[in-house]
Amino acid sequence: MSIAIVFDISEKIDDFITNDAPLKAIIFDYYMNFIPYFANLFSSLFIFIAVIFFTSKLAYNTEVIAILSSGISFKRFLIPYLLSAGFLAVFSFLLTNYIIPPANKKRLDFEEQYIRHRFVNSSRDIHIQVRPNQYFYIQSYNVSSQTGYKFTLEQFKNKTLLSKLSSSYIQWDSTIGKWKTGPYIITNINKNGETFLQGEQLDTSLNILPEDFARRKNAVDAMTLGELNQFIRKLQMQGSDNITTLKVYWHQRFAFPFSTFILTIIAVSLSSRKKKGGIGLQIGAGIALSFSYILFMQVSTKTTIGNDYNPFLGVWIPNIIYGFIALFLYKTAPK
Which of 9, 58, 171, 191 would give a disulfide with 63, using CB separation of 3.0 to 4.6 Å? Predict the structure, then answer.
């Protein structure tokens, strides 16, 4: 973590100086929340190296041979490791879903203020289902002025258009917590034809907030599991095309803690055999294997997001493959 902090400081030092970031904010708002996030992100790797080192020392001192020769099975030998892995996996799950997200919010707020450029929503022709049978459209959105342009709101019933509200723009009014239109036209459609209603300004209560148009992709890092579930349900109702990405993040919150079990079994199976030359080769092989696992998981999730594959398979397939590797190594471990 010290190395990670040094690299991060060297990368962001110009931003800190240019934007006059206070030293207190850098330490307490950014790095004090940076450390738990990245420590938890690589916790499975830390656990894997610890198990490799500890078990290799046991094997090098012939203690594993003594344990197995006394009648204790390798399965029984593995139980304390799995109990510890279970405790650490649950702890990592709680950190990921309930403790670290509030800390990430402070870190991300700091980045917005002192590191990142102002967010610009470059999306065009934004269609959103705000309620069942009610559809919202704007051609573009300006984040700084909180204004959407060429706005329409359509109300349907049984796939039949009942009414349409149109305006050249719609703007968020923070004093009343509602959207206000510019000059508008409401078209009502019934059996007798169409009727029109015009006005200069109209307050509208929509199930949409300005932050829905100004949210970066990494904003989900600041959401607890409950908030993420609620956010996914909201976007599903709106017909968003970002659902696959969010479901990938959702599955990752379960898959990463579970990887602790797989890496623990692999580490014990690899390092429980006494080998000539000490423990260096075992630690090196173990680190290489763990890095390949983390790399495979990253590639798999990015491929899933980029190609709209099944989120469950995209996130869990590294666990499945390396789970079989763990089972193979367990079967071939010294008994």
Answer: 58
